[in-house]
Amino acid sequence: MEIFVQSTHCVIAAVVFVLICLLVVMVRYMYRHKGTYHTNEAKGTEFAESADAALKNDPALQEAVDESKKEYFI
């Protein structure tokens, strides 16, 4: 019976240790990534006069922009 009690204490201690380690890793991750927001905007668009001007100068969207079909979202 004494061996059973000792092994139970060891298992409980191991589980508590793993939970504490997991908690530390989660808190560290949340602290390091707090407020991190990455966008995939084209470089140099922050200096454009309007959204249309920024899209016209984006080389990835040159063939997609059609002057006759503009959409505006409100």
Automatic annotation (TrEMBL):
Compartment(s): Membrane
Transmembrane segments annotated in the record for this chain: 12-31
A GO cellular component entry from the record: cortical cytoskeleton
InterPro entries listed in its UniProt record: Glycophorin-C, Neurexin-like
Domain Neurexin/syndecan/glycophorin C: 26-44
Xref: SMART domains: 4.1m
Entry keyword set: Membrane, Transmembrane, Transmembrane helix
Source domain of life: Eukaryota
Membrane topology: Single-pass membrane protein
Annotated protein name in UniProt: Glycophorin C (Gerbich blood group)
